[in-house]
């Protein structure tokens, strides 16, 4: 594979940028800011699976962006029986997006691996995340300079796994799909979506929970073994 690949496309959240860790720190901050006495661990136990569900629905165009932002919070508070007014949920929703990019923990070896790969390949980002925060995440975590192009679903008007977002990314990168590789954590959006668009793929599964017959890694460091 490495002998014909020239361009590598990465997902951002859950692949390079440690979403769960940064999200937890953001909730800690905005709960304090809004004077909410919420057990953070209990809230996150509810929020994490609900958030993942809404992102899947969002990627399938079954919910709107504003519905995702509100409903994931409203349902999480409901699940832990925490009474909260709609006005506060809307404020938390805005505060969360505003503060999320202030925390920028990356997965282990991200800088080292990107530094090595960028000396051999052209690197790119394809993300379904909200445009207003994805660029800030890249900049604030000091990895933006590694990427030649950054494509968000809001730029294109469709989300992964829709082939159109991969086609747009390939066009912007000026590379053919046969010379391209996608690295991401989501089997449907990143891996199957990329494969349908003609790209090779590597699944990033740090907890080794996803059954997959193709290339799979548990650490980013393994990319160096496969690609250098």
TrEMBL record:
Alphabetical list of InterPro entries matching this protein: HAD-like_sf, HAD-SF_hydro_IA, HAD-SF_hydro_IA_YjjG/PynA, HAD_2, HAD_sf, PGP-like_dom2, Pyrimidine_5'-ntase_YjjG
Protein origin, superkingdom: Bacteria
Coiled coil: none
Organism for this UniProt entry: Mesonia profundi
Protein name: YjjG family noncanonical pyrimidine nucleotidase
Pfam families to which the protein is assigned, alphabetical: HAD_2
Record-linked SUPFAM superfamilies: HAD-like (SSF56784)
